[in-house]
Amino acid sequence: MAPHTGFAGRTYVVTGSASGIGAATAALLRERGAKVIGCDLDDADVTADLSTAAGRQSLIDQVTARGPIDAVLAIAGGGRTGLLETNYFGAVATLDGLRPLLAQSPAPRAVAVSSTSSLAPADERIVQACLDGDEAAAVGYLAADPALGGPTGAYGIAKRALNRWVRTAAPTPEWAGAGIALNVVAPGVVDTPAAAWILADDEIRNAVETAAPQPFGGFPGRPEWVAELICWLSSADNRFVTGQIVFADGGSEATAIGDLHWR
Prior knowledge:
The protein is an alpha/beta fold and 263 residues long.
């Protein structure tokens, strides 16, 4: 089989396309013959703010107006505003809102990007409010007591909730039953603008690397390494993988939890 056969002629929606993992993924897809509809706050084909309900609807409307799509990659993360709003509610709104359009593809695929931050303890009330779709309650809990965010704050909570949403949604009739593969890629610390606050300070960098070592590939990882995995999961070549949380983290998750799930 020729390499990268599952991309030519396909159209990919990539959120967070202007920088970091999103930009690396968009570049790889274009190199492999795919059409990319880049979405971001600035410097993109579709500009929209996923931290707001209006911005999410604007993204869906703009993408829908551009015609058929074959894959949705919800990579946008961090965020200038609204960590919980962008990383959970924005991602889920993108995936769910574009699902009917995606289902028209002969080989529809979807990938959300999470993080090893999802492994951190999280306040269950906030996670459940996310899963219930109650954005006001989820945001309100954190506004009332920021300490409820735990060691990774709203970002880690959002990614934990996103993992759980995908695990629940992926095998349903609306996703797997419609032939749509839905997976998560959860990177470790990667050299992106969003991780600059970690990498620019030696004390913070050493503390994070000590707490979450990446024995394979080193610290930090490269965005194109994560992009390779996202590309394959969203290609037509992926015919049997869905509902998975795949950690692209240099072994950080394995170091942290070992064989816990199989004991």
